[in-house]
Amino acid sequence: MGNDLQSKIICEKCRIDLTPGKVTLTYLNSSFPVDLYKCAKCGIVYIPEDLALGKMDMAKKALKNK
Amino acid sequence: MPEGIRPGGLLLTEHLIELCDFKRGDRILDAGCGTGTSLDFMCRKKRYETTGIDLSDFMLKKGLEKFPDLHLVQGNAMHLPFSDNSFDGVIAECSLSIMGDIRKVLGEIKRVLVTGGKFAISDIYIRYPEQPGAINYLLSAGCISGAFIQDEFINIVNNSGFNILLWEDHSKLWREFIAGLILNGISICDILTCSSSKEKEMEVLISSAAKVKPGYFSLIAENIL
Fold it and tell me: Can you give the residue range of the structural domain that contains A20?
């Protein structure tokens, strides 16, 4: 998966553009609908760095603040 | 906090109205109905005779674009534009805490409810109000600054002529709601203040929030004579 000159995100396997859509993330036994880019053919989802490294950590803190 | 969404969504709405045991054809008021999502659900799925009231013209207009058949009224819950005993049930989801004078609002809800009618609430509360910093948090936490303190709130409801039938904690839904907002790119600052704020103040606010642990509850009360 990688970016081309127009900043499109392409599925490495299927060679088609990923398109935005609602994806359900399951994290710490909870499910969240999130808008992410995914491949319409194979279904692979692109998780951007800011989500993986920043928002997930903040969400984890929110979920664990019992 | 973003408009039109709240912890638990329609699943919690359905849970609340089932606990109230409303019947088909019952006249139900949604106080603080926003864009009418719950009303549409109650009208279509439960066949209640529904009315919604909200202070925001903007929200009501958006609601009528989505659900043109709903009966939506613009107005203030402290002065409900309805006659006495005109509803069998009232529901207020994540709205009571931002309606202003809680005693006035409860007085109005009691007035428009029939005797024995049920009032269903879901809203935000502070689970550890004795923590240092709790008051700072409540005073500065923007759109959730009206969060209730359980004992105080229960006293106010009881003293307003209601009999409390049930209190349930749904704080897991609150945590999931906040985590969902974060994952969708809404910052803690947006959630807590609804406006920009100084970085230092935000640190204090976030640290206070971690201590006082905001949560979510539902309550069912019956209108008594």
Answer: 1-66
Give the CATH number for residue A1. Answer: 3.10.20
Tell me the per-residue pLDDT of B97-119, one tens digit each, with 9 for 90 and over. Answer: 889 899 999 999 999 999 999 99
Query: ipTM, 2 decimals?
Result: 0.73
Tell me the C-alpha distance between B103 and A54, whole Å: 42
How far CA A29 is from CA of A63, B49, B152, B188, B215, in Å, comes to: 10, 37, 33, 22, 18
Closest partner residue to B182 (CB to CB) among A33, A62, A65 is: A62
Distance, CA of A6 to chain centre? 19
Q: How many domains does chain A have?
A: 1
Tokens representing residue A47 in the block: 């998780």
Q: Please spell the DSSP secondary structure of A1-49, one letter per residue.
A: -EE-TT--EE-TTT-SB-EEEEEEEEETTEEEEEEEEE-TTT--EE--H
pTM of the model: 0.82
Tokens for A63? 């979920």
Nearest CB to A51 within list B180, B183, B209: B183
pLDDT of B120-133, one tens digit each?
A: 999 999 888 777 66
Beta B113-126 vs B87-93: how paired, if at all?
parallel
Question: Which of chain A's residues have a Cβ under 8 Å away from the Cβ of B209?
Answer: 65
